[in-house]
Specification:
This protein has three helices and seven strands, in the order βαββββββαα. The protein is an alpha+beta fold and 138 residues long. A seven-stranded antiparallel sheet has the order 1-7-6-5-4-3-2. Helix 1 packs across helix 3.
Length: 138
């Protein structure tokens, strides 16, 4: 298993962040890594979707945890394992909002993932969280 997380804090209402972060077809408008994204049903646990990373192949994902306005988790299958993305929104004491995205890779692909993809993915997620903040603030 391999785990890392990125977080950002910015001036936006948690409901505005939730609205942007859970608008799957809108991800390519602010998420630097997404070219196409769709959800095959309501944004809820058990619903599947598909997303294509810019310059890479696309792949399926399934929402596995859904806590409205606060948290959602998605899983993507990989050869010999899976990647779990945990998305959390927390209001801060100073009226801002903190967002955290954790990435956990399970299975035989985890060591290769760490060596080949983790550093770039961490940078991309950090930039996308900042873009999420700008989008939610508009």
């Amino acid at each position: 298993m391999y785990l890392f997380q990125c977080e950002a804090t910015f001036g936006a209402q948690p409901a505005a962040v939730w609205k942007v972060w859970t608008d799957v077809p809108g991800w390519p408008e602010w998420d630097l890594t997404k070219e196409i994204a769709r959800l095959d049903g309501p944004f809820a646990a058990g619903t599947s979707g598909w997303a294509k990373q810019r310059g890479n192949l696309g792949g399926p994902f399934t929402i596995t945890v859904f806590e409205p306005g606060r948290r959602w988790v998605s899983e993507c299958p990989l050869p010999l394992g899976k990647v779990v993305f945990d998305h959390v929104i927390e209001p801060t004491d100073d009226g801002r909002v903190r967002v955290t995205k954790s990435v956990e890779v399970f299975g035989g692909f985890a060591p290769l993932f760490r060596l080949m993809f983790a550093a770039r993915m961490r940078r991309d997620i950090a930039e996308s969280l900042e873009a999420l903040g700008r989008r939610a603030h508009d």
